[in-house]
Design a protein that fits this description.
207 residues, alpha+beta, 4 helices, globular
Length: 207
């Protein structure tokens, strides 16, 4: 089948354009199936397939929490290391494993003032710090899924996503403030590897 020739998009020059009034939309407002996520739900925690897929040499992790900065880290490790947890299935097709953790779940709910009945999902980054690779998540910016009774009050529930209250009247930070915040984010001092980035994967594999 013959394809129609592509037509170049016309570029309009406008030096008068200003970023004043624009807000850079929070990344959490979009789908993140290819980025690492960490979920709290029903006394269980689990990561998504992106985490498992990008650390193929590790079936175990340690979970770290910084209660002062409200940060959570997942560090791939060996089975024999102290406090290691299996985070994926023990099959050829590695898939995320839900970890039952009633005490840890309760402590995080108390730390953050979260609702035990809701589902919380965090979007994070894969970092390299010296010789360690780890996923880091910000507990203060969760995607929240409230469980609401269905119309007929059956067992089924409807999940509605919500976000921190201060985000309700904004799409994101003003463009100028956003550019400044990039230099002041929680990952300062680390090398950040974007999931799915070919160059980052090659750098990791060559370590």
């Amino acid at each position: 089948m013959n394809q129609m020739p592509r037509k170049n998009i016309e570029i309009i020059e406008n030096d008068a354009f200003s970023y004043d009034g624009y807000q850079v939309v929070h990344g959490e407002f979009f789908s993140h199936t290819c980025e690492p996520s960490f979920t709290f739900n029903n006394y269980r925690v689990y990561v998504n397939a992106a985490c498992i897929r990008n650390t193929p040499d590790f079936d175990y992790v340690q979970i770290l929490v910084n209660p002062d900065e409200k940060k959570l880290a997942v560090k791939p490790c060996r089975e024999e290391e102290k406090d290691s947890l299996r985070w994926c299935s023990a099959t050829a097709k590695r898939s995320p494993k839900q970890i039952i953790c009633k005490i840890f779940f309760a402590k995080v709910m108390a730390l953050m003032g979260w609702n035990y009945d809701y589902r919380y999902r965090l979007i994070g980054k894969l970092l390299k710090s010296k010789d360690d690779m780890l996923f880091v998540f910000d507990l203060t910016t969760p995607e929240v899924f409230e469980k609401k009774p269905a119309a007929e009050m059956k067992v089924k529930t409807l999940c509605a996503p919500s976000y921190p209250s201060e985000w309700k009247n904004q799409f994101g930070l003003p463009a100028e403030q956003h550019n400044s915040a990039i230099q002041m984010n929680i990952f300062d001092g680390y090398t950040v590897f974007s999931i799915g980035n070919k160059e980052a994967k090659e750098a990791i594999n060559n370590e």
